[in-house]
Design brief:
The structure is a homodimer. Chain A is α+β, with helices and mostly antiparallel strands. Chain A is 35% helix and 23% strand. The mean pLDDT of chain A is 89. The structure holds a DNA duplex.
Chain lengths: 139, 139
Amino acid sequence: MKSFKKMLVDKGISPSMQRIKILEYLSKNRIHPTADDVYRALVKEIPTLSKTTVYNTLKAFTNKGILTALSVFENEVRYEYEQQPHIHFKCLKCGRIYDINEKYDYLNDKYIAGHKVIEHHVNLKGICKNCLEKEKEDE
Amino acid sequence: MKSFKKMLVDKGISPSMQRIKILEYLSKNRIHPTADDVYRALVKEIPTLSKTTVYNTLKAFTNKGILTALSVFENEVRYEYEQQPHIHFKCLKCGRIYDINEKYDYLNDKYIAGHKVIEHHVNLKGICKNCLEKEKEDE
DNA sequence: AACAATTTTGTAATTATTACAAAAGAGTAA
DNA sequence: TTACTCTTTTGTAATAATTACAAAATTGTT
């Protein structure tokens, strides 16, 4: 597996310690964290870490296509490690965001009503499996 | 056509002047406005209007299903007058949001990976027809 | 070691939104 | 009309996410 360091170099980003740690965190914690989540997790290891660094780094990674920024119905941005396009499901009860790897017809690079599509996001909202089961138990 | 006043009464919302004007604005301006857009447009007519009223009213209307709240890739909420489910397209160049009435397989009320779907949003990002044409002209 | 370029840090500012209590308005019964 | 209650609106202050920006630290190079 390609090291995070090498990955950054390949993308033309100089691999500082902070940047490597942030990338590593996103790769190992597939929980769609906010910038603040990333900061709170890493400041334990890097006590001098600054939020501005986190914001700058997440933005830079997103621009380079290393991460994807999500707006799943909330007014805070969440990030995820780049992977195959997939569906996001947000539970209205517990707030968790699930990845759903169902097939759908990607419109990326296609034209629709004359508009050129670059990104195609599918966001679902509802009650997740866990919460549905809990509801049943409570009956 | 049902009056805005009657529409509110039917939904169990007492039809104050502010509420009627806000609903009327959303109905007549299908531009996916933010709360601030609504405020700035209406404060001309209603100089005493408060932003809190706008926020409260938009939230109440959304809860009653009169409006839909969108998070189309930005960290600000936009609102639209309730209508058939449709696709949203956000232009990366001009920032405009277009409604696209293409057919797609609505997952509402269905189950996917055991999760119950209540809302299904499709958000596209790209370059809109207008901006594509302008790009061509500039060549 | 000295220098230049890059990166990180910390603080202040900005923006969207919410909390909350006082003021205003509307409806109703005496 | 007046008194009373309930609802809605208003205005201000607080919160939360994000950005701006300049100083400090780090890195690589001569």
